Amino acid sequence: MGQTQCYKILSSHLVSGELRQGESISIRIDQTLTQDATGTMAYLEFESLGLDRVKNELAVSYVDHNTVQVGFENADDHEYLRTVADRKGVIYSRAGNGICHQVHLERFALPGKTLLGSDSHTPTAGGIGSFAAGAGGLDVALAMAGIPFSIIAPRVVEIRLHGKLRPFISAKDVILHVLSRFGVKGNVNTVFEYTGEGVKTLSVPERATIANMGAECGVTTSLFPSDENTKAFLDAQGRGEGFVPLTADPDAVYDDLFEIDLSSLEPLAACPHSPGNIRKVSELSGMAVNQVLIGSCTNSSYMDLKRAAAILKGHHAAPSVSLGVAPGSREVLMMITEDGTLETLIKAGARILESACGFCIGNHQSPGTDSVSLRTSNRNFYARSGTASANLYLVSPETAAYSAITGVFSDPRGSEADLSGITMPGKFVIDDSMFIMPSFSGEIKRGPNIGEPPVNTPLPESVKGHAVIKVGEKITTDHIMPAGARLKYRSNIPRYAQFVFESVDPSFPERAAAYRDNGECGFIVAGASYGQGSSREHAAICPMYLGIRAVCAVSIERIHQANLCNFGILPLLFENEEDYASIDQGDELELEDPRNGVMNGSLVLIDRTKGKRIPMKLFASEEQKKMLLDGGRLNEVKA
């Protein structure tokens, strides 16, 4: 029986375990990437390991999230990142060089390599045939130390593409169609693998868009084959020597099949407040639009901006619309400057934004009260934009550009623009001057906002306390730890912890700290798909700092589950989902014989307020069980 592309890469990188679906395995990581919102803590954690330099093939530190510098915190943290990278052997990508996923795709990602990034959209590199996965900062720090990365050998879903996209239908519509089928939950330990003759009609940047938003389905990664289109992209980037052909065997067996006729797709949109809430653009036509933002790691490539500009050419954004465009990288910005695309965008009334994450993470461009914002980014979670009352819709660059002209939600097929001549260039503008190569010397500089990574205590014999909060389903890491203006505190855990669950229950930190200071353990009770979204490990670190010892949920997403284990918080699942409804916030809870329960993989949660015994399953591998007993991964690796 032949192998899938996924299992070919895993097999060539396998360090331990049996490569069989559902089994825990460890793989060698070739490349790592960090970004400044999660990277500061990742490098503090790497420093705590006591190593002189990184051990993996390639490590890159990108500054792309907190480029708006109001106050000293972000500037200080960037100086720390620059100097620690210089000392430890990490390539440093300066602010302004671009978004990590776009830049890494352009300059470093290679087919057949493994890539681990401290950002949930690291699977973008799956568009070039790399097994690229997001993880918490600690897992990335350990990968930089040469320690294998542990995952569950995934189920692999074949997504077979037929036909070819029609004009004004784009890769964004493909992945929105996939989201309409698979949703945003229930896909833990799954990989999407794209096959079929339709794949050959998609360029690497288009494939990267699809792989990028596969993260919203909760999959480990998405993979496209490495073929002649991959070689053309690498050649155009001056990196043709890195090409290797890679695809699934003809007789590979998959766990599921989803077929898509690309020629049958039409423009789609993800409606508030979930990337999985998909509707046809035609059903939304006529809705007034207040803001249009084109960019993010999903749709900021050269071809994305060329297509948007072609639609905007000769037109101007409607008076009611604030239009912003953020090129994904300095390379893209230089190219659109040279070929006149930038001038077209400016004449159309676009505000040219920095090549950074920016609006996608709520770092700027927050929309107005009760407004409608169309964005080409990948997430539209409640309050993520910085405006809780705003409604965010995720659309293609084509839909965004045409709607900016009309001032209402509009199907881009109404445009008279000619997009037929827009293809991937034979050669990209290449300028690597914004990368700083390490000298392995110099002083590591730390500003006053930078602390030490907090460490949990070993799991006690008695875990008693209260349900500090009860939340519903699809609670994202944005709900747990807000981004935007709060991200500047990411290296100052005591300060950042003051904002845990800010958009859900602002009184949570005070309540949790009071229980902690009284010697109690805290519990979080949650519904399905807890911890979806960003990979930010602070959604585990800060609750741990506030005394949370267990999350009791209907289901927990992969990256967040790993982060909980890394910091000694028990990820517990209800054996009977209906038991979730029986617990109320404030209930007095206790875990019976928790240390033995962890080793056995099953525990009993006693709700003393209700007089009820609730069976729970520990969502952890054998390796993670020991980690939980030790109080987290840092305790384990330092022992």
Sequence-ordered SSE layout with sheet pairings:
Elements: H1 5-13, E1 14-16, E2 24-27, E3 31-35, H2 36-48, E4 58-62, H3 73-88, E5 91-93, H4 100-107, E6 114-117, E7 131-134, H5 137-144, E8 149-152, E9 155-162, H6 171-182, E10 190-195, H7 204-214, E11 221-223, H8 228-236, E12 256-261, E13 268-270, E14 278-280, H9 281-284, E15 291-294, H10 302-312, E16 322-325, H11 330-338, H12 341-347, E17 351-352, E18 372-375, E19 391-394, H13 397-406, E20 435-436, E21 463-470, H14 477-480, H15 493-496, H16 508-517, E22 521-526, H17 538-545, E23 548-553, H18 558-566, E24 570-574, E25 588-592, H19 594-600, E26 602-607, E27 612-618, H20 622-630, H21 633-638
Parallel strand pairs: 3-4, 3-6, 4-5, 6-7, 9-10, 9-12, 10-11, 15-16, 15-18, 16-17, 18-19, 21-22, 22-23, 23-24
Antiparallel strand pairs: 1-2, 2-8, 5-20, 13-14, 21-25, 24-27, 25-26, 26-27
Helix pairs in contact: 2-3, 2-5, 6-7, 10-12, 10-13
